[in-house]
C-alpha cells in the first residue's frame, strides 16, 4: 500500500474537518488530485466511506471498546465488500489514524474473526478538530517544522528579520552560483529567477527565513486575504500575489517529465520528488496548494492555484484556505 496517502488523508482532515466523511465524492476528487497513482488505495478508502466507516469511527456506540469497534469494522468490510483481511485492516486503520481515534497503527495482523490483544490508545473524538488537535503531518518529502512567528492584525504580516552573519557578508562582487541554472541567491531570504527576472520570497507566508532554512509552519488564508497582504521584506514593500503563469514557472519536475520546468499547468510524471519545486531555492515547502492572483474566467467564486504535490495547475473556491508565496517585479 502507498504510505503517502495516509499522510495526505490526515492533512485533508486537518484542513477540511471530519465533514469529509459524509462527502465521498469530494474526498475522492481531492485524493485523486493529490495521489494520482494510488488508485487501489483510493478505491478502498472511498468504499469504506460509502459503508459509513468514517461516521462509525466518529460516533462509536456507547460501551464498546475502541479495539472491539475497529475489529467489527474490519469484519464489516471483509464481509460486505469481500475485501481481503489485510486490505480491510489497512483501510480501517488508515481512517482511524486520519480521524485521530487512534495514535498509532495496529501491530501485528488482525484477522476479521480474531480480535487482537494489542492495546490501542484512543484520542478523544472531535467533530471539528482544530489544527492543534490533529498531529502535524509528517510530509513525505521531509517538511521541516519550527515555531510559528507571525502577526496577522490588519492583514499585515511581518516576517522575522533575516539573520545575517556579520563575519561572512554576502559578496557584492562575486555572486553565488545559480541554483539549477535558474535561481540567483540574493542572500536576504529571496531568490531571483534569471529567466523571468522575478524576485521570490524563499519562504511561504508564516515561515521565517533563518540560517538557510524556512522555519515554522506556513500560514493558510483565503484568496481575498492573500490579495490584501502588505509586506515589507528584504528592503522592499511591493510584494504581491503571483499570477497563475508566474506561479506555474516555479513548478520543477525532477523526473524531467514532461519537462524539468513544464510551466504549462501539467502535472509532473514519472518518478519525481515532491514538493514539485526546486527545494534548494525554496526549502521546507509543503506539498500543498498555493494561491495565485488570477481569477477563473466565468466563475466568480473561484481562483487559480498550483498543487505543489504534483505540479498540477487547478482552481479552488476563494473562501478556501491555502498557502501563499509572494513575488515582486514583472507584470
UniProtKB/TrEMBL annotation:
Task: Please note every region of biased composition (Polar residues).
Answer: 156-171
Q: Which residues form the Lcl C-terminal domain?
A: 189-328
For region Disordered, the annotated ranges are 156-175
Q: Which domain of life is it from?
A: Bacteria
| Entries under Pfam families matching the protein | Lcl_C
Q: Which InterPro entries match?
A: Lcl_C
Q: What is this protein called?
A: Lcl C-terminal domain-containing protein
Q: Which organism is it from?
A: Thioflexithrix psekupsensis
